[in-house]
Amino acid sequence: MPDRAAPPSPESAYRFGVRLSERGRVVGIGDGIAWVEGLPSARLDELIGFDDDSTGLVFQLGRNLIGAILLSQKTGVKAGMAATHIGRKLEVGVGDSLLGRVVDPLGNPLDGLAAPEFRQFRSLEAQAPPIIERDFVTQPLYTGCKIVDSLIPVGKGQRQLIIGDDGTGKSSLALDAVITQRGRDVLCLMVLVGLPRSAIAATVEALQANGALEYTVVVVAEANALPGFRYLAPFAGCAMAEHWMRAGRDTLVVYDDLTRHAQSYRELSLLLQRPPGREAYPGDIFYLHSRLLERAAVLSPEQGGGSMTALPIIETRQGEIAAYIPTNLISITDGQIYLDSKLFAGGMLPAIDIGRSVSRIGGKAQLPAIKTASARIRLDYLQFLDLELFARFGTRPDPAVEGQLRRGRLLRELLKQDRLAPLSEQAHLAWLLAYGEGLLDAFAPAEAAALLPRLFERVAQARLRPEDPKDRWLEILREAVGKPA
To answer: Angle formed by the axes of helices 425-436 and 377-391, to 10°?
Structure first.
């Protein structure tokens, strides 16, 4: 859907002549839904206006009535109030004026500053780019997380699901990914759906403290917002990112989270008396998220070469990833990062379960040096977990198994990472080479982890690049850990 220029002024748009129009009437109102009769030519996603200058979005078409989501209320829509066509579909303002701002799904400011000035508008609903307009995922998108960037890599244009129980660090992982884009020419959008105001304020404060707000747009639909606003928020954020993608820019969109989005859509559907299906969700709940996430892509050079990477977040209950909404999202996306509550309780942060996490595309976008250095780490770590389980039975392992257990415990300690402390690709390659070449084997796991900041600092001082020769890297790393060349 191409961007639309700002509408002309009412004076310049006026034309003298006879005009015919429909005039409907509100017959029912409640829970953010207005039932209107007398507008037989109304279309889905069309805006209608009420006598008090309130607006609504046509969401349900019936034989005699239409159901409209209330988007704004001035004095309050009441039964008997007149309703008319506005003559256009719902659109949101797009462009660079949104950067650094906190807005609602309609582009209205929530940060106390002046309203953004828009020169272009874009429809919230749009067709996903067809295959002929897409290109292959070939460029990495760094999240700053050791486990993700080395073992579950994400590429620009990928849809990577973040899944786990409540309180396992899903939002923190996504926030780190946004902060990591500083200086990488990637524009970010954080869509916060159904969060309390305190959590929204903490997210905005973290972005500002880490210098990430200047290239980020925060789209907010609070927990106490009308269900229509919570339903529209992800589509508004996607439309804003799509504008930059079509202009040849790289974008990252975080949807936090689509569980609450699905619940708001279920609430709207039940209010509009749609037939309920499994778990009372409507029958088109799969299409709701597929048409949103399919818009994430890498465009071909003929289309500008822009990209939109999507990081949708979904919540599970008691680790049940086979539930209805999680399985829908898993089947739509290109992989998932699973965070486990038991790992979180055990102090393994980030609590990413490597065995259940997978990236179906990102490995093709990894830098060759990092891909080579991390080739066997995933398999080694999974084998270590199995060996550790058997070692609990009290049998005495042979020296080879004992060596595997020792290196596995070392790797587990190295994979731990603090929140809001993302790493660069040079830092990732530094610890991968140091572990893979056995430079840290002589240290206890805690001592080796404490050495990592020194390694990162020495690599930064030497201005090493991933494409530099491996021998040069190992020379610097041996010097940093105190081993002779």
So the answer is: 50
The token pair at 476 is 């610097």
- In the chain, CATH 3.40.50.300 sits at 93-366
- Cβ count within 10 A of residue 446: 10
| Whole-number Cα distances in Å, 142 to 86, 139, 186, 481 | 44, 10, 11, 26
φ, ψ (nearest 5 deg) of residue 306: -75, 170
Angle of CA points 372, 366, 440, to nearest 5°: 45
Over residues 387-416, the pLDDT tens digits come to 888 877 766 778 888 888 999 999 999 999
Query: Position of tokens 């790797």?
Result: 411
Choose which CATH entry (1.20.150.20, 1.10.287.90, 3.40.30.10, 3.40.50.720) describes domain 373-481.
1.20.150.20
Tokens of 101: 């701002």
Active site members? 360
Fold classification of 93-366 is: Rossmann fold (3.40.50)
The reply to whether the predicted model has a pTM over 0.70 is yes
Residue type, 358: V
